[in-house]
Amino acid sequence: MRHEIRFSGFGGQGIILSAVIIGRAAVMYDNKFAVQTQVYGPEARGGASMSQVVIDDEQILYPKVSVPDIFVIMSQEGFEKYGASARESAIMLIDSTLVHSRPKCRCIGIPATREAKQNLKKDIVANIVMLGALVAATHVVSEESLKSAILDSVPKGTGDLNLKAMQLGLELGKQP
């Protein structure tokens, strides 16, 4: 089953790392195929950034995302630039702390930045909260593969914090 996932937010939120982690989870731990691409302008930190992942059970012959079916949007500018044109059949997870617009498609509001700041005292792990919510809402990869990919990808010494962020996201993503 092919999934085309688009992540967007502002530079510094870990948008590219999020796509790398979900791709790694698919390939290394769920025996799927994945291709990841990224776009960020000269503004980098603070400006809109975007990263995309194609995940499939079969070899990926066309690696570009043409019509994303899943969106993870973490900033208002990211929504306007990369999410506003989402098809009605898509699923969009938004960081409801920072994104105020709502798409025409199914939208799941996750207050990732607020919850990371309040519960974990570090808003820098909001992207990991969103990854947990993504997996809870879509099952695009397994929880175990996400956990392993996070531990492979984050700086040494931050594993426990990031796993707590993932768990918080899993809980938030399972809420109706």
UniProtKB/TrEMBL annotation:
Pfam families registered for this protein in UniProt: POR
Q: Which domain of life is it from?
A: Archaea
Q: Listed GO molecular functions?
A: oxidoreductase activity, acting on the aldehyde or oxo group of donors, iron-sulfur protein as acceptor
Could you list this entry's UniProt keywords, alphabetically sorted: Oxidoreductase, Pyruvate
List the transmembrane segments. none
Ranges for domain Pyruvate/ketoisovalerate oxidoreductase catalytic: 11-171
- Output the SUPFAM superfamilies linked to this UniProt entry: Pyruvate-ferredoxin oxidoreductase, PFOR, domain III
**Mind telling me which InterPro entries this protein's record contains?**
2-oxoglutarate_synth_KorC, PorC_KorC, Pyrv/ketoisovalerate_OxRed_cat, Pyrv_flavodox_OxRed_cen
Report the protein name in the record. Answer: 2-oxoacid:acceptor oxidoreductase, gamma subunit, pyruvate/2-ketoisovalerate family
Q: Which organism does this sequence originate in?
A: Methanoregula formicica (strain DSM 22288 / NBRC 105244 / SMSP)
